[in-house]
Design brief:
Residues 1-31 are annotated as: Disordered. The chain is mostly helical. Helices cover 63% and strands 2% of the residues. α9 (145-168) packs across α13, α13 (221-239) runs parallel beside α16 and α16 (267-286) packs antiparallel against α21.
């Protein structure tokens, strides 16, 4: 028997065929994307998501495959202190019961769009929780830390590029694909429009003349500043090692980012960048890393030379001499806390409220010739005040308690990723007082927490 049937024997033809080997079958099956692919979709495709209007929603969309991956694993680990975070999420959802309750000093009456805003923010809280668990549960082999660091480093470069676009083409804006297909009644909503309408910069007049502040590829100038500062530690990590081109790219990008950083007019950003630089230099220098000292000294000298020999110096000094919103912010914070303590100290009001009147005029509200007469809503101009007003003292305490618990677990860890992660947390703590952070900045913070927690867990497991 030769084992091969002749052409005249149909049954023999079937019998003579050898079954395909398992490797051959696997080779013909479509390859599943490897673990961590949702993060690559989000960050590597971010310029495309900005142009098409999906940049604020891609994080929420990619939560679905992350959840499915966690579900497939069966057992999901959580970091220590996670119970506080779960309680915070429950407390946040309870705020839905207070959406149509009038707040002291707030404009009375119910606005239906509060439900939309509340749902959007709840989706973000869900998304940042998912990414914390997703990154934290994938192993180093499945999702290498260096890969995540490079993705966040890429986002720093994208943010710098968007800032330069805002400086060079401040009037650039265009309708996104999503904006064109959505109903006008929805796309013209103030919140939705800010999320789906790409703009390179926004204009301000608090220096006494019109000046543009970069925002691309995000929705607001303060969001641009917060994201730049939180992505920066990962950019430094990614380019402090590796080939020659990485070491050359590092100073070049840092010098380029000086222009949009100054033109952002964000004093909070300037302060946080200084704090972060001092913290990382100190921590790495204690480890004996000479590159940290060389980078700090060389970078400081280069920045001073460029700064002193350009128009940036005058703009910087002018901004420092123009406090602008200091007094108004202080008054808003005070009224926000008092309103919460009087009206709903435990649960909060679920969302923000417009303020009755104004700190600058009897009539209240922004008007021609008095842009400063307009006052932001209660619970804005800083995520800390949003937490207190929207989720009450209990909700704010649970949120801050979880963050402090995780920082305490890693602040003395000498690992380079832990140092960068703690720098992110310190920057985030400062930004809590002055910036609204419930979107990409908080997403980045959760990824930093996940990387530190995962390393801590692996060390314990390894003995």
């Amino acid at each position: 028997m030769s084992g091969t049937a002749g052409p005249s024997s149909p049954s023999g033809a079937l019998a003579g065929l050898s079954p395909p080997s398992p490797s051959a079958v696997e080779g013909r099956q479509p390859r599943r994307p490897g673990p961590g692919w949702p993060l690559s979709v989000i960050f590597l495709g971010f310029p495309l998501w900005w142009v098409t209007g999906f940049s604020a929603f891609i994080f929420l969309i990619m939560s679905v495959p992350m959840v499915l991956e966690l579900w497939r694993r069966g057992t999901v680990r959580v970091p220590r202190g996670f119970a506080m975070w779960l309680l915070f999420l429950v407390w946040m959802l309870l705020g839905a019961l207070m959406l149509f309750v009038d707040a002291p000093y707030g404009v009375p009456g119910a606005e239906p769009n509060r439900i939309l805003v509340f749902a959007y923010r709840a989706a973000w809280y869900f998304s940042i929780t998912v990414v914390l668990l997703y990154v934290g549960n994938l192993t180093e082999e499945e999702l290498p830390t260096e890969r995540v660091v490079r993705l966040l480093s890429f986002m720093f470069v994208v943010t710098v590029g968007g800032g330069l676009l805002g400086v060079l083409l401040p009037h650039l804006e265009f309708p996104s694909l999503l904006e064109l297909v959505l109903p006008k009644s929805l796309s013209r909503n103030d919140l939705v429009a800010s999320l789906i309408h790409p703009k390179a910069a926004t204009s301000t007049t608090f220096l006494g003349y019109e000046e543009s502040r970069p925002i691309a590829p995000f929705a607001y100038a303060n969001s641009w500043g917060a994201n730049l500062a939180l992505f920066l530690p990962f950019f430094l990590l990614a380019h402090s090692r590796g080939g020659r081109w990485r070491r050359l790219l590092l100073p070049a990008v840092l010098l380029l980012c000086l222009w949009p950083v100054i033109y952002s007019l964000n004093r909070g950003l300037w302060g946080v960048l200084g704090l972060g630089a001092a913290y990382m230099t100190f921590r790495f220098a204690r480890k004996g890393n000479k590159w940290a000292l060389r980078l700090a000294v060389g970078g400081a000298v280069a920045l001073l030379l460029v700064f002193a020999g350009s128009p940036l110096k005058a703009l910087f000094e002018q901004r420092l001499d123009t406090p602008h919103s200091n007094e108004r912010r202080g008054q808003l914070y005070e009224v926000t806390v008092v309103s919460t303590l009087i009206g709903s100290p435990v649960v909060g009001f679920g969302s923000t409220r417009d303020l009755q009147g104004s700190f600058a005029s009897v009539g209240g509200g922004e008007r021609p010739g008095c842009k400063g007469c307009g006052v932001p809503p209660l619970g804005t101009q800083g995520s800390l005040w949003f937490l207190i007003f929207s989720h009450g003292t209990v909700g704010a305490g649970l949120f801050l308690g979880f963050m402090v618990r995780r920082f305490a677990a890693h602040w003395s860890d000498p690992d380079r990723v832990a140092i960068a992660g703690c720098c992110v947390l310190l920057s985030f703590a400062v930004f809590l007082l002055i910036y609204d952070l419930l979107d990409v900045p908080l997403y980045t913070v959760m990824i930093a927490l996940a990387l530190m927690w995962r390393r801590e867990r692996m060390e314990v497991a390894g003995g």
